[in-house]
């Protein structure tokens, strides 16, 4: 399927092997028979949690992100460890970052946030039946949590106060689910 669009790997070189990310440089054969180079970031994948309280509000985080030198509003999220089930990762990340555990978990969707230069995928989960507890932040992790209403969050997306793509997409999914347009 889609053979007329496919590129075929001819050669592959790992150009960078970091603690978290790797950079790959591949030579590919294009559909017209010519060659090209494709450089991309290899990422282990991550999860995003949409923590929904019984009153319809959501739990969000404020966290400094070094590459862009600013604090962002985000849904809780985290990297999937090798051979870790994404739902297990989501449960771990929610508790570590926020202290909350959830009684009810639903898989929402998988998104690919940077398809031109990364193989990263994010699995989004809805977490309900939230119970507060002690958070256990990783060393070097600093963030604040707060509650907001879904309409507030959508207004922040529209106003450009929320620009993180996983949070924007999560906000749109949450809005559709809360309005029963996209039932799970």
Secondary-structure-derived class: alpha+beta
N to C succession of SSEs: EEEEEEEHEEEHH
Strand order of the largest sheet: 7-4-9-8
Shape estimate: globular
Radius of gyration: 19 Å
What is the arithmetic mean of pLDDT? 96
Our count of helices gives: 3
**How far apart are the first and last residues' alpha carbons, in Å?**
30 Å
CATH class of the largest domain: Alpha Beta
The CATH architecture of the largest domain would be Alpha-Beta Complex
Share of residues in strands: 35-45%
The CATH homologous superfamily of the largest domain is termed Nucleoside Triphosphate Pyrophosphohydrolase
Number of strands: 10
Largest sheet: 4 strands, mixed
Helix content: 10-25%
**CATH fold naming of the largest domain:** Nucleoside Triphosphate Pyrophosphohydrolase
Instruction: Point out poorly predicted stretches.
Output: none
- What is the total domain count? 2
Catalytic activity: GDP-alpha-D-mannose + H2O = alpha-D-mannose 1-phosphate + GMP + 2 H(+)
Pfam families: NUDIX (PF00293)
Keywords: Hydrolase
GO cellular component, one term: cytosol
Written description of the protein model:
The protein has 184 residues and is of the alpha+beta class. The protein folds into two domains: 8-42, no CATH class; 46-178, Nucleoside Triphosphate Pyrophosphohydrolase (Alpha-Beta Complex), CATH 3.90.79. The chain has three helices and ten strands. The chain has helices at residues 86-98, 150-159, 165-178, and strands at residues 8-17, 22-29, 35-42, 46-51, 57-65, 70-74, 77-79, 101-111, 122-131, 143-149. The strands form three sheets. The chain has a four-stranded mixed sheet, with helices on both faces. Strands 1-2-3 form a three-stranded antiparallel sheet, with no helix packed on it. Strands 6-5-10 form a three-stranded antiparallel sheet. Strand 5 (57-65) and strand 6 (70-74) form a beta hairpin. Helix 2 (150-159) crosses helix 3. The model has no long low-confidence stretch (mean pLDDT 96).
């Amino acid at each position: 399927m889609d053979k007329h669009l496919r590129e075929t790997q001819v050669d592959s070189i790992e150009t960078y092997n970091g603690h978290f990310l790797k950079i790959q440089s591949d030579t590919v054969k294009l559909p017209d028979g010519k060659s090209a180079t494709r450089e991309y970031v290899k990422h282990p994948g991550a999860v995003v949690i949409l923590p929904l309280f019984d009153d319809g509000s959501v739990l969000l985080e404020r966290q400094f992100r070094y590459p862009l030198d600013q604090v962002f509003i985000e849904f809780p999220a985290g990297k999937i460890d090798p051979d870790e089930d994404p739902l297990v990762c989501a449960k771990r990340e929610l508790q570590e970052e926020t202290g909350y555990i959830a009684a009810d978990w639903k898989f929402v969707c998988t998104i690919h946030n940077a398809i031109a230069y990364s193989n990263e995928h994010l699995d989004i989960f809805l977490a309900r039946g939230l119970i507060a507890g002690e958070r256990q932040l990783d060393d070097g992790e600093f963030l604040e949590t707060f509650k907001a209403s879904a309409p507030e969050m959508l207004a922040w997306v529209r106003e450009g106060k929320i620009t993180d793509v996983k949070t924007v997409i999560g906000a749109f999914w949450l809005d559709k689910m809360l309005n029963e347009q996209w039932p799970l």
